[in-house]
Amino acid sequence: MKSVELKAFRVALLALRSRLRDDVSTMASTALPKNGSAATSALSGMPTLMADVGSDGYEQEFTLSLMANEEGTLDLIAQALERIRTKRYGTCEECGGVIAKKRLEALPFAAFCIRCAEKQEHGFAHRPGQPR
After folding, report:
1. Rounded distance, CA 130 to CA 132, Å?
2. Can you give the pLDDT at residue 36?
3. Domain coordinates of the chain in residue numbers?
4. 98 DSSP β-pair partners
5. Positions in the chain whose pLDDT score sits under 50
6. Residue of 123, 126, 122, 24 whose CA lies nearest to 73
């Protein structure tokens, strides 16, 4: 891959990483109650409805799930940036073939070509420590 293309992908990955970090921070401040917030509502004198407690719990659990997903994507971005640094970006981690530029444009942190990604989704990919 050309140096100019690598630089463009690096910039895209850094921008995506920045956006996701901001999203995770926002979700964390929303999902994780501040110290004393539960006590404040208890002291307000307003009755707490069980439905509200259930809804709040569901929303918190959902947001924490989204945060975990975003953290996973941040890990994939870090790995892609490392592949750029080590000049392995755009090469499939499974077969060593070229990852299509269109795929990288759609998913800049992709580590596998389409064929190997499909195999992995169906459980046919090589796993480290297993014979090929």
Report:
1. 6
2. 46
3. 3-89, 90-132
4. 91
5. 36-43
6. 24
